[in-house]
Amino acid sequence: MNKPTVSERFRYWFDLWMSRGTVALMALLGIATVLLVVIVAGLVFLFHLFPSDAKSADVVTILWNNLLRTLDPGTMGGDEGWGYRILMLVVTIGGLIIVASLISIISAAFDAKIEELRKGRSRVLEEDHTLILGWSPKVFPIVSELCIANQSLRKSSIVILADRDKVEMEDEIRAQVGNTGRTKIICRTGDPMNLVDLDVSNPNNARSIILIAPEQSPDPDLDVIKTALALTNNPRRKKEPYHIVGEIADAANLEAARLVGRDEAHWVLAADLIGRITVQSCRQSGLSVVYSELLDFDGDEIYFTEQPTLVGKTYFETQQAFSDSAVMGMLKNDVVMINPAAETPYEAGDQLIVIAEDDSTVRLDEPGEADASAITTAKAPAQKPERTLVLGYNSGLDGMLQELSEYVPAGSVVTVLADVEKPAFATFPNLKLTFQRGDATSRAVLDSLGVDKYNHIIVLAYKDTLDAQRADSKTLITLLHLRDIEERSGGDLNIVSEMLDDRNRELAEVTNADDFIVSDKLISLMLSQVSENRKLTDVFATLFSSDGSEVYLRPVELYIKPGLTVNFYTVLEAARRRGETAIGYRIAAYAHNGHFGYGVRVNPKKGDRKSFVAGDKIIVLAEG
Question: pTM for the whole thing?
Fold first, then answer.
């Protein structure tokens, strides 16, 4: 092998030096400047090319003048003697090249630093912040809800780490969320699955961590699980447990997620949650409005409170002890009990689970009097087989049908109309299932179905095969047709629809539909709530399960004699006699009016008197 030449060695050394960065380049230019000044000064002394001014003949003066000429070409205007002028011209031209290079290097370094800062690579110094790892449209409702939750705090912050441009994230949040109040939003660019990038977001000092799957990921669950693994197995992690909340789309991945997160992570099974709420809402008009009220931070929400003065009281007596809050259960020995027996004692160390406008409004009052004469003893009629129409298809339908089978009596019928090949459905014990291929956006197809003959109608989004906007467009057209059929027939269709993008909800409201299931919005609300209070995990697990007590909207005739004006203490007593907990009501006159919350009122003031008529509903927690 040939030995490297002097030229090759110099080029190799020069490449290594240049790779050291801006400071090395500036040092090299400084050395070149010194060499140029010294060489030209040496030539001046060697050939005695001094200017006419004798004072300029000393070494220091010559060196100083040469240095000034490299920095300022104008200093050579008064030079005399052609030899001296030529050498000074050389110095000046060399200086021009050096200074131009120096300016270029400094400018490039400044631009690079600005670009680095713009990308958001500096380490976050916040403490007690909410950390969001990942990016999808769910970020906007989560940030919005957390800002509402933080309104009572003097200072709060949300940190977002995602593999996106920092400025783009900030611009989108500003456009979609708007004013964030006292909450500071900090965005950082990085891969949440990378340990080095993860350290930038300062997870060890975060109050809670929310994991979001990237919207363009081919396997979102895998990304969420790997991010959880990067947190829990990080060698630089804190000793105390994290409070992690994450979304899992496929139930098959839930076990792996639990192995990674263990006791530090709480997982929201998205498809299962949407399926359960859809089924429960389709059978009870207005239920999704109740769930939205309980899940968001705007309005009434769920709190845990310890009231030592109520120790020794029964569960029902604790319900009567609050005029502005609705008691819905107890936390006893770390076990969540929703709608326990009325005589269950409230003991030292227990906590009450209440619905209130704010934790500051949870206060005790003197119990009001119930009007026993207004309470009815009517019994609910026996269930009859139900007819349900499903328009559209996605992979969550099997889970919905399984959930529906647990609620309806034997002999119930489900008809599925979808513009797909017939899926391979499972067998459901209480359901007779039929499938028809067709397009639900076609008025002729809907007319042929006789939609007014069905008790419940579910409009599903084609989220497996279409993008969110196209899927929502098909849903909107279907809803418009259904409401027109309703108006022409004079009937009242019970419709629940699935919307993927919450921005389309306002468009859908022109159809006067009283129930909308917005997938991403509900998942976002759930993640936000659990991130603020981990104990809510068990509360929601109970409410959205077919086991135990759930939310029901039942006819007022089962509780109060229609036409009478009563306070809510009377409604509480009526519900107690049925083994239930009353938490609100729904006024039928506003059932199709979104401006009045579709008639739903959760946690009414118990002292206010209200007149109920036939068709109104009482919102209760009860076992099915």
Answer: 0.78
